[in-house]
Amino acid sequence: MTWEKLKLILSIIYDLFFLLINIPWEIFKKFNPNKCKYKTGEQHEKDINEIAKTIANITKKNPNIEIVLDRQLGEGHSSRSTEYKKGKFRINISSLNSIIEINSKDKYVDVESLVTFEELCNETLKYNLLPCVIPEFKSITLGGAIQGIAIESSSFIHGTFDKTVLHATLNNWKWSNNQFE
To answer: Where are the transmembrane segments (predicted)?
Structure first.
């Protein structure tokens, strides 16, 4: 058997292996009722104000309290344990999981932080659009990509994902035009 034939056989085995591994994920996606959600800008503002009110109330009682996201092990892509969250106030942002607007004319999306790139791409493809930088992991959230930089193969053209963000609300800071306001 020649080296070329062996490479071809190994390539086919490799592809079949990953196809078989991916089948449970594809079945889960097909029957998962949690499709990408849409909400109005008004509902988004209401959700943001509710989270801000919670933060204001807790920091009024204890100005030195440390606040962390209330996400459990396995809900993110962090390689560290959740030990650093012990004794800190956990803020729930699970309501921030929707697309607010896809503007195909001006080519931008108004989206909340817990929308995954898979959800975003599935929706933007309906308008023949995609983000400039797309992480390889489908389940990376947009908020996670901003916080974790998200450098990908298209980054040599567009920079890291955060460089493609026009505006973001981060707790009590605003990010606009690649700077904090």
So the answer is: none
* Residue 12 φ/ψ region, left for φ over 0, alpha for ψ in the -120 to 50 degree band, beta for the rest: alpha
Residues 73 and 161 in one domain: yes
Tokens representing 32 are 């998962």
Residue 66's SS3 state is: coil
Phi, psi of 158 (to 5 degrees): -105, -5
Q: 96: domain range?
A: 37-180
For residue 76, CA distances in Å to 132, 140, 141, 175 come to 22, 8, 8, 23
Q: What SS3 class is residue 176?
A: strand
> What tokens does 127 get?
């308008």
Contact 169, 48 (CB under 8 A): yes
What is the per-residue pLDDT for 148?
Answer: 80
Running DSSP on this structure, what letter comes out for residue 17? H
- Alpha-helix runs per DSSP H in 32-141: 41-61, 117-124
Structure confidence by residue, pLDDT tens digits, 85-123: 899 999 999 999 999 999 999 999 999 999 999 999 999
Q: Work out how many domains the chain is built from and give that number.
A: 2
- Distance of CA 121 to CAs 14, 131, 138, 174, 175, Å? 27, 7, 9, 25, 23
The model's pTM: 0.72
Give me the residues paired with residue 169 across strands.
174
